[in-house]
Structures are given as C-alpha cells and as structure tokens.
C-alpha cells in the first residue's frame, strides 16, 4: 500500500516494492497537491502489479557517467569527449540527484529551452543528441521504459555564426603561394603543403620525413597528430589513409627543407606548431595582400574549389580529400557544383542552338 503525507508545503508519496526478495521503499516528494502524489503512487502500484516496475532506479547523472566511461570515452577523440563532459556537467547542474525514472519529456524540453536561450542551435543539438543516445541505451537496458527525449525539439535564440564555405579566390590563392613557397617559417611550410594537397591540419601536422617520396612526388597520409592529446592517432576515416600526388615544383622545394627527427614540421618545442599558431601566420600573410581571411581549414576548401573549377572530376577530388563518401564532397561543395552546372547548361544550349 502507498503512504502519502505532507512535508512542509509539498506532498510526499511512498510505495513499498520487492527487490531481490527484500521489501524496499520507492519515494518521491515535491508534489504540489495530494492528488498529484496519489496519482504517482497509483501509477507505481500498477507497474508493480504488471511486473513493469523498474527496480534498479539509479541517479540519472550517475548512470550517464557510467555509460560514458564504459561505452564512449575509450573510442572518442578529445574534442568529442569535451562535448560529453559538457553534457554531463549541464545535466548534473540541472538535475543533480534526480532518479532516472523521475525525468520526463517536459523536464528535458525545459532543459533544452533554457540552454538554447544562451547557445547556438548546433550546441543545443549536441546536448540533445548525446542525452538521447544515453536514454536509448537506458531503455535497452530496462533502466527506464520510455525514451523521454524522442519528442523533444531543439530550441535556440542565439544566431549561429556564418557557415558560408570560406575559400580563397584563384588570384588570392596564387598570391598566398608566392608568399609561402620560399618562406622558412614552419607554419608557412604547413600552409604551402595544405593548399597544394588539401590535407587537414592534423594530417599535415602528423607528417614525418618518411612520408615524403621525392622519387615519385607523393606524400603518404597514414596518421594524424592530435594537438590536445599530444600523440599520433589514426586518420579521421579509413579512406583518409591515402597517397597524394604533389606538384614537382612543390616537391623540389620541400626536398630542401630541414625536417625534424619525428615530425616533418617541427617547432622549437620538438612538436608541430599548434593550429592556433598556423592560423595566426595565415592571417598575417593574407592581410599583407588584402586577401580574404580564412582559417587553415579554409585552405582545404580552397584546394578542392580550385580543382573543381578546373573541371577535375568530383570523384578524384573526393579521393584526394580522403572523404569516406563522395556524397560528403557533393554536399560540401554543392553551391560550387551548382554554379558549374549552370555554366555547363549554358554551354550545352549554345552547342545545341548551332545544330538547329
């Protein structure tokens, strides 16, 4: 039988259940009225009668942390780990010691709404998706019966930064190449390498002298350097392991570089410069020519955009970039391809007009 009583200004309900043959108490407090407390108790009694009662009722954030440490942390990169830790911190702040069965869809929607008042939509989506992944696990493990995140919507009032794909125009690219190709700064050499190869920053940083094949004019990409972890790791995807053909002019210049014992691009600290250092150098160089300011990753977009503008096939560009799927390349550079398609349409119609 249930026990319902008033404590201060709120009501508390107790229901006794059997766990492992022992009688234990399920309690919930904070109800505004006796009717609400009684409704909760009746629901627990019904679950007990139908053998649907969750008896391993843990604190939500405790279960979330256990799940993260066992199933997620060993497989994640540092940047992704930070999102899981940020999510755990937010859940702990909002829900504290609340039990996993006491969280409802409205509770989660309120949390998402409050977080969205001060964060961009992409950040809100990270929090929602990570929490949803845990809740689906909790349902599979019979920790809860329903996925309370399923009907929750992302909410944000903070405008996201402009996500327009930023890359250099051809004349800007040429000027940058002239700036870096004979520049002895390690960051300049990294910029020069990226703009002619399309490599990600972590891939450029992970190159060693052995990865340069001067006989065949190729660079072998087989690992990446993770700045935060300060260690080599596998490339982003299996298709990121690739051998890239490089211009002979670049290879002749690179052949003269003094490379480090462990890294091709080695700073005075014995490790590659940080992405922050590379971005600062890139900005300085671009400002000298009044060129558009882009990030180091924008060099990769510049490389791909230039090749696509020269009628290089999308399949080859995708392979050169190391994308796991050509659809990624298509979606990333869709606006460029649409522009190219429009030019091709006009060209085709011009030819067809001559037939008539």
Automatic annotation (TrEMBL):
<dbReference type="Pfam" id="PF00589">
    <property type="entry name" value="Phage_integrase"/>
</dbReference>
<dbReference type="InterPro" id="IPR002104">
    <property type="entry name" value="Integrase_catalytic"/>
</dbReference>
<dbReference type="GO" id="GO:0003677">
    <property type="term" value="F:DNA binding"/>
</dbReference>
<keyword id="KW-0238">DNA-binding</keyword>
<comment type="similarity">
    <text>Belongs to the 'phage' integrase family.</text>
</comment>
<dbReference type="InterPro" id="IPR013762">
    <property type="entry name" value="Integrase-like_cat_sf"/>
</dbReference>
<dbReference type="GO" id="GO:0015074">
    <property type="term" value="P:DNA integration"/>
</dbReference>
<dbReference type="InterPro" id="IPR044068">
    <property type="entry name" value="CB"/>
</dbReference>
<dbReference type="InterPro" id="IPR010998">
    <property type="entry name" value="Integrase_recombinase_N"/>
</dbReference>
<dbReference type="InterPro" id="IPR028259">
    <property type="entry name" value="AP2-like_int_N"/>
</dbReference>
<dbReference type="GO" id="GO:0006310">
    <property type="term" value="P:DNA recombination"/>
</dbReference>
<feature type="domain" description="Tyr recombinase">
    <location>
        <begin position="163"/>
        <end position="347"/>
    </location>
</feature>
<dbReference type="InterPro" id="IPR050090">
    <property type="entry name" value="Tyrosine_recombinase_XerCD"/>
</dbReference>
<dbReference type="InterPro" id="IPR011010">
    <property type="entry name" value="DNA_brk_join_enz"/>
</dbReference>
<feature type="domain" description="Core-binding (CB)">
    <location>
        <begin position="55"/>
        <end position="139"/>
    </location>
</feature>
<protein>
    <submittedName>
        <fullName>Integrase</fullName>
    </submittedName>
</protein>
<keyword id="KW-0233">DNA recombination</keyword>
<dbReference type="Pfam" id="PF14657">
    <property type="entry name" value="Arm-DNA-bind_4"/>
</dbReference>
């Amino acid at each position: 039988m249930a026990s319902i009583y008033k404590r201060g200004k709120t009501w508390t309900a107790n229901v006794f259940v059997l766990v492992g043959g022992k009688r234990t108490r399920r309690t919930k407090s904070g109800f505004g009225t006796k009717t609400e407390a009684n409704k909760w108790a009746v629901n627990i009694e019904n679950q007990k009668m139908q053998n649907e009662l969750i008896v391993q009722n843990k604190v939500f954030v405790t279960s979330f942390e256990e799940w993260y440490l066992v199933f997620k942390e060993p497989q994640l990169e540092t940047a992704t780990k930070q999102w899981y830790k940020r999510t755990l911190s937010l859940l702990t702040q909002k829900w504290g010691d609340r039990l996993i069965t006491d969280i409802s869809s409205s509770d989660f929607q309120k949390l998402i709404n409050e977080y969205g008042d001060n964060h961009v939509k992409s950040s809100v989506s990270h929090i929602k998706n990570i929490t949803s992944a845990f809740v689906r696990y909790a349902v599979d493990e019979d920790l809860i019966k329903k996925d309370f995140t399923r009907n929750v919507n992302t909410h944000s009032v903070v405008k996201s930064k402009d996500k327009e794909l930023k890359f250099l125009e051809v004349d800007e690219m040429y000027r940058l190449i002239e700036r870096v190709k004979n520049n002895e700064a390690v960051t300049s050499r990294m910029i020069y390498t990226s703009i002619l190869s399309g490599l990600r920053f972590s891939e450029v940083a992970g190159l060693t002298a052995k990865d340069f094949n001067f006989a065949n004019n190729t660079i072998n990409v087989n690992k990446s350097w993770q700045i935060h972890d300060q260690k080599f790791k596998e490339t982003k995807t299996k298709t990121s392991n690739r051998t890239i053909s490089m211009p002979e002019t670049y290879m002749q210049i690179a052949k003269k570089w003094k490379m480090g014992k462990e890294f091709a691009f080695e700073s005075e600290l014995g490790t590659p410069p940080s992405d922050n250092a590379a971005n600062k150098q890139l900005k300085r160089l671009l400002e000298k020519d009044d060129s558009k300011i882009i990030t180091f990753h924008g060099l990769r977009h510049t490389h791909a955009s230039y090749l696509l503008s020269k009628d290089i096939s999308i399949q080859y560009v995708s392979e050169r970039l190391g994308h796991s799927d050509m659809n990624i390349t298509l979606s990333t550079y869709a606006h460029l391809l649409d522009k190219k398609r429009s030019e091709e349409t006009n060209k085709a119609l011009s030819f067809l007009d001559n037939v008539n």
